Amino acid sequence: MLVIGLVAAFVATRIDPVLLRKLWPLALGVACVLLVLCFVPGIGVNRFGASRWIKLGVEFQPSEFLKVIGILAMAGWFARWQTEVHTFWRGFIIPGFIIGLPVGLIAIETDVGSALSLSVAAAAVFFCVGTRLIYLVPTALVGIAGAAAFVRSNDTRWTRILAWLDLDKYRLDEGQQQYRALLAFGNGGPEGMGLGNGTEKFGTLTFAYSDFIFPVVGEELGLPFTLGVVLCYVIITVCGCSIAMQASTVFDRCMAVGLTCVVVVPAMVNIAVTTAAFPNDGLPLPFVSYGGTSLIISLAAVGLLCGIHRRSRPMEYKALPVAGLRSYAVKL
């Protein structure tokens, strides 16, 4: 999967942005069809009560593709109607529907974490492109209220909230993962127990290879490596924002902002969950957690960011003498 991901990243760096702008409606339609296939018997794969995977020769998770394709669709729309980003219909309602459809399909799969992370990435694109706050703020408040109502009405997710608030009380059932994750960090201490010497991954810390890989890093490799993982995501954030600021087109700018969020937001949530700063959720840690689809899509997202950087021209300045005293830089 790593080789496939690296190939996808290389191809993404070379892909023609004009082609992306033309094909985003088709890509979005195909991706939504794949999401619907998650509920088709014989094709969809149900695990732990969630219908997030499909099997078409190989098994993969369509929601991971939607993270990139959804951002691509928004970028394509705003690039087409960049002079109307402040309007109600073309600047808010229609692009909201474009991203709202896949977000809703992902949420129905009970993959609420991925749906919320994609929503955050979409909100960042809306904000950066210039959509009016009078549209965004009420929508965000309604969305938060709706998410809170959904969590309160769902016994499984509400129990996760209660367990998060009192991990010691729920350490043997709903709060076991986060409780054992904290023990893993404590076992590792500043220096770690040594690569492969961790104990929590052997049964007591479930999904230690995917959703809770970060505590395993802390237990075996210690504080320097956990901080190093966090630093890597900080670097991705800084580089992504820098690429967005230097992008030469609206399309590239929207893509850079959205793709950066697609990689960084799940990482922030995963680290917050495994350190018990957030309630438990099922988001993997990009580039680190086990999962072929996630790795391929994350590498492809980085490849697209590199492609945007290649197409961007750094701002050119020319020094102009003013009153013979000093020079001011003026953008050409």
Major β-sheet annotation? 3 strands, antiparallel
**How many β-strand stretches?**
5
* Rg, Å, rounded: 22 Å
The structural domain count equals 1
SSE-based structural type = mainly alpha
- Kindly report how far apart the N and C termini lie: 45 Å
Q: Globular, elongated, flat, extended or rod-shaped: what is the shape?
A: globular
How does this model look, in words?
A 3-stranded antiparallel β-sheet has the order 1-2-3, covered by helices on one side. It has a two-stranded antiparallel sheet with strand order 4-5. It is mainly alpha-helical and 332 residues long. Residues 316-332 have low confidence and may be disordered. The protein has helices at residues 2-14, 17-37, 62-80, 89-108, 112-129, 133-153, 155-165, 176-188, 213-221, 223-246, 250-274, 292-311; strands at 44-47, 50-56, 58-60, 317-322, 326-331. A hairpin with a 3-residue loop joins strand 4 (317-322) and strand 5. The N and C termini lie far apart (45 Å). It has one domain (2-331). The chain is built from 12 helices and 5 strands. The longest helix is centred in the C-terminal third of the chain and has 25 residues, at 250-274.
